[in-house]
Amino acid sequence: MTTPGRTRRDRAADAALFLLAIALTTLGVMDNLDQRPAPVPFTVDAVLGAMSCLGVWLRRRQPVGFAVVTVALSVYSMSAAGVTLIALFTAAAHRRPKVVGPIVAGAVLVPFLTPLVRPDVQVPPWWQVLLGYACVAAVLAWGMFVRARRESLRERARRVESERELHLAQVRQSERDQIAREMHDVLAHRLSLLSLHAGALELRPDAAPEEVALAAGVIRDGAHRALEELREVIGMLRAGLDRSEGPEQPQPTLADLSDLVDQSRRAGMRVLLDCQVGEPAAAPAAIGRGAYRIVQEGLTNARKHGRDGEVSVAVGGAAGEGLTVEVRNPAGAAGAGIPGGGSGLIGLAERAGLAGGRLEYGPTATGEFRLRAWLPWPR
To answer: What Pfam families does the entry give (predicted)?
Structure first.
């Protein structure tokens, strides 16, 4: 088990315990001196007590070894008894009880083993033995409490880190879903325009060269834009959605609706735009982008599934009232033969729901297909 680098607090705690060990050892030496022991055992006792004090600096790297050596030294050196308590606390704070148990068993036997190696020492009275056992139990309980608290803090830190990683994964998935919705709306719109232009060329093989060149230019430009947008999204997905590497592409707003309608008009669609919003640019970015995507999907569906006829787009609302977007087109079989996955309207409904709005779509009694959405527009 490796020990992480010590902090300033750890160094301060080690210094405090080292001073405490010196104080306890000094008291033990003085107590032995009052009993007038023999010179040689007394000197060895004091030296072993001093050596046990130096082991405090190794307690974090070798808690078990420190405890075993200190308990062994305390069999001969009574002045090392105080350091033994520090060693038992350290072992209990850093190791599991099943590792500390044998060491504690050895410490319990110390009062009875000392007279065997030192004939000048008698077995202490029973109350001193019980007092020593009480001190051992107290430091063990303290050490186990410190270990349990440390484990609890580590578990809490791991849980927080796990929750943070889960949140990041959810954010990344949400970003991917958003990108998928954006690409569906954008590519479906552009590819339907390309299909419409190509269909016009197919139906008019005798068109003037100028008209053919103009339609081919529009098709080339639309294909180029679609490839660029697809390349950008694939690059974002490969880069792990790291958008810090470059600026994001400007997102469409409510003010860009007229340009969107003009693109469809240039493709041959008859689109009537009725925008009753006084200042489209003043609409919140999220609301404007949502309205743009709704109109974009409505025009795409009109090209895919609607009969030839005029498509009407109505946008109205204001701050505090909400924004209403409605797209109507004659219902019928697919006029341009453009395939579709049928998930565009589902994605729009989800987009509107996430924004706090609602979306309705379906055929009307007058033979039209109506797409209507309401988005909240706060004051």
So the answer is: HisKA_3
- Model confidence at 336: pLDDT above 50: no
Nearest to 81 by CA among 107, 117, 44: 107
The CB-side HSE value for 214 (13 A sphere, CA atoms) comes to 9
Token pair in block for residue 171: 């954010």
Place of tokens 């608290």: 149
Integer Rg of the chain from CA: 41
How far is 273 from 313, CA to CA, in rounded Å?
A: 5
Cα–Cα–Cα angle for 109, 114, 119, rounded to 5 degrees: 150
Confidence band (pLDDT; 50, 70, 90) for 342? low
Residue 325, pLDDT score: 93
- Nearest-angstrom CA–CA distance, 123 and 115: 6
**Which one-letter amino acid corresponds to residue 326?**
E
The predicted model scores a pTM of: 0.48
Q: Categorise residue 320: left if φ over 0, alpha if ψ from -120 to 50, beta otherwise.
A: left
DSSP strand pairing (270-275 vs 310-318): parallel
Torsion over CA: 146, 147, 151, 154 (sign): positive
pLDDT digits (tens, 9 = 90+) for 165-195: 888 777 777 766 766 666 666 666 667 767 7
Residues 6+ apart with CB under 8 A from 268: 196, 197, 200
Task: Return d(Cα 259, Cα 349) in angstroms, integer.
Answer: 24
**DSSP designation for 331:** B
* CATH superfamily membership of 252-379: Histidine kinase-like ATPase, C-terminal domain (3.30.565.10)
Outline where the chain has alpha helix (H): 8-34, 39-54, 63-76, 81-94, 97-117, 126-203, 209-238, 257-266, 285-305, 344-354
Cβ atoms within 10 Å of 371's Cβ, excluding its own: 23
